[in-house]
């Protein structure tokens, strides 16, 4: 929250992607953003824990595409992905259900590459 609030004078768009967070946590964050005046420059993309695993897995890609859109419009963008460990958990679940050969700790081999892409 402090990072988002510090962007007010920077003329920067903040995109916060809540990956697998509870709806209550997202609602609290949204209320705080409204209360502290950060709403005009903040976008919240939420794939809550009540969403399906595929929705949570693609949320970082959607957030990245949104950030790229604003970047291509000439805006400065701060992208916050919270949290990639949850994203990796759902990617592992989908991969095991799809019958892919697991890598270390049952994660699919490509999860390490896709996670690095977002870092």
Describe the fold and architecture:
With 119 residues, the chain is of the alpha/beta class. It is built from 5 helices and 3 strands; from the N terminus they run αβαβαβαα. The two termini are 19 Å apart.
Provide a short characterization of the protein structure.
With 119 residues, this protein is an alpha/beta fold. It contains 5 helices and 3 strands, in the order αβαβαβαα. The longest helix has 20 residues, at 53-72.
| Computed CA radius of gyration, to the nearest angstrom | 16 Å
Q: What is the architecture at the second tier of CATH?
A: 3-Layer(aba) Sandwich
Enumerate the spans where pLDDT stays under 50 for 5 or more consecutive residues. Answer: none
Please give the largest β-sheet: 3 strands, parallel
Mean pLDDT value? 84
Which features characterize this protein?
50% helix, 5 helices, 3 strands, three-stranded parallel beta sheet, Rossmann fold
Write the layout of secondary structure elements.
Elements: H1 2-5, E1 12-19, H2 23-35, E2 42-47, H3 53-72, E3 76-82, H4 84-97, H5 111-118
Parallel strand pairs: 1-2, 1-3
Helix pairs in contact: 3-4
């Amino acid at each position: 929250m402090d990072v988002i609030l510090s962007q007010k004078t920077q003329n920067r768009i903040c995109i916060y992607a809540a990956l697998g967070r509870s709806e209550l946590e997202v609602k609290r964050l949204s209320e705080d953003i409204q209360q502290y005046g950060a709403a005009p420059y903040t976008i919240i993309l939420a794939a809550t824990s009540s969403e399906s695993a595929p929705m949570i897995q693609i949320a970082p890609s959607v957030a990245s595409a949104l950030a790229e859109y604003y970047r291509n419009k000439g805006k400065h963008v701060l992208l916050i992905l919270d949290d990639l460990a949850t994203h990796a958990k759902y990617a592992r679940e989908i991969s095991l259900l799809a019958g892919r050969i697991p890598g270390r700790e049952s994660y699919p081999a490509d999860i390490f590459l896709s996670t690095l892409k977002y870092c």
